[in-house]
Each structure stands twice: as C-alpha cells, then as structure tokens.
Amino acid sequence: MKILKMLAAIGFVAIFATGCASVPAEKWQNCAIAGAAIGGAAGGFGDDHDREDLALSALGGAIIGGTICALMADEEKTVEMEADSDGDGVVDSLDECPTTPEGVAVDSKGCALDSDGDGVADYKDQCPNSAAGAVVNELGCAKALVLDGVNFHTNSADLTEEAKGILHQIAEAHYTHHGDVDLLISGYTDSRGAAAYNQSLSEKRAAAVVAFMVAHGCDGSKLTSVGYGESQAIADNATKVGRAKNRRVELSVK
User: Taking 50 as the threshold, does the pLDDT of residue 52 lie above it?
Assistant: First the structure.
C-alpha cells in the first residue's frame, strides 16, 4: 500500500511540475524544499512511522509547496497584467495614453478628454468651447487669420477694391456655411503717428470690415470688431516691409 502511495505521489509531482513550468526554477525549488521539510517533520509524528512514511510526507510537502509557488506566480502575473502605471483607471494593456498626468480625466482609451475636439486636451485648453473646425494654438484658442490683401487707403478706413473682393468671398462663405459661428475682426496699425490716433484708426478699420460683411449677407450679431492700434506689432516698424505687416486685419473664431 505504501508503495502505491509513493507511486501516486510521484505522479502528482510530475503533473504539478509540468503545470508550473513558468514558475522560476529557484522559486519553485525553494518552496518545494520548504514544503518537504515541513511534510517530513509532520510525518515523523505518531507511533508507527518509518522511513517510507517520512518520505511520503516529505514528498507531499514538496508537492504542496510547489503548488503554492505556482499559485503565487499566477497571481503575480495577473497583478502585472492589470497594472495601471499612470493611475487613470485604465489598465496599461488597454491604455493608449499611458503617461497621462495624475488627476486628469480620461476616456475609455486612457487619453485625456478633449470636449471641443480641437486637439488640445481639456486640462490644457484655455478656450474649452472652441467652435467646431476652428484652428487653434497650443492653448486651445482659435488662431487668428491675417487677411492678406485686406488693406485701406492711406490714413483712412476706406477699403481698397482688392480688399472688397477678398472680403466679399469671406462674407459669402460665412453666411452660406458658417452662419452660426461668431467671428472677431481685429484691426492693427504700424507705429507711425500718435498712439491715440492709431488706436482710433484701427477700431474704425475693423468696424469697416464688419460693416462690409454685414452689407453682403452676414449676420451682424455674429461679428465683433476690435482695434489694437500699434500695440501688437508682429514685425519691425523700422522697415517698410515690417510696417506693411503690422498694418493688418485679423479674423478669428470667438
């Protein structure tokens, strides 16, 4: 009977050893040795024990010890598979944005939310309600479009013929396709002349653009004008080319 028990135990060892092949050899060996020692000690208790009892007890302990190692290894693998490195609630295996900053709200893919769909995540977006399709800067705010060719006669708010042709196309596109989008028209001047005069001139020029667009079909409630005078130069006012760039009209989505 003891021989049969021994053969059965050996069979179990083979089964468990095969099933736990993925467990590191050193870890398996240590657990098995510890289990054998405990099993052998337990087999030594009693009145009618012999060497065969001790061997069977030790072998049983080795099986149990090795099995525990296998279970622990499986548990560690599960924990590793379910790791969430950036702590956003989406496990790494499913996280398409694994380095999201702490505390940032994310979607089911683990990427920061972008409510207005402008390509700038909400936590960095200073203009979180940008109009659909608006081209934005790194802060999530609409980029201003310089209306090249929209110029005025010298020292006046009278549009040139070229400017009227350009604005006519812009007005038509707005009322035909984007009538629900609020636009901001901004006027600027170069630095020649008094600052107060330039401020007033920039306001009149921006207002002249709005008036032209309204006259050509746009909803006036969707258009706002503002003047900045010489205060926001984008080029060197010391050169003719620079001054020409500074005398500009910009259009942006509010």
Answer: yes
Q: Distances in Å between the alpha carbon of 164 and those of 66, 173, 224? A: 86, 14, 18
CA angle at 249 for the pair 243 and 250, rounded to the nearest 5°: 120
For 247, other C-beta atoms within 10 Å of its C-beta total: 19
178's tokens: 């984007």
Nearest to 250 by CA among 193, 202, 201, 211: 202
Residue 98 near residue 105 (C-beta atoms within 8 A): no
- Inter-residue contact 253 to 130 (CB < 8 Å): yes
Query: Is a pLDDT exceeding 80 seen at residue 207?
Result: yes
pTM: 0.54
Alpha-carbon span 243 to 223, nearest angstrom: 27
State the DSSP string of 111-175. Answer: PBP-TT-SSS-GGG-SSTTPPTT--B-TTSPBPPEE-TT--B-TTS-PBPHHHHHHHHHHHHHHH
pLDDT per position as a tens digit, 149-167: 999 999 999 999 999 999 9
pLDDT, tens digit, 9 for 90 and up, residues 93-112: 899 999 999 889 999 999 99
DSSP 106: B
Residues in contact with 125: Cβ distance below 8 Å, sequence separation at least 6, in sequence order? 114, 115, 116, 118, 139, 140
Q: How many residues does the chain have?
A: 254
Quote the CATH superfamily of domain 145-253.
OmpA-like domain (3.30.1330.60)
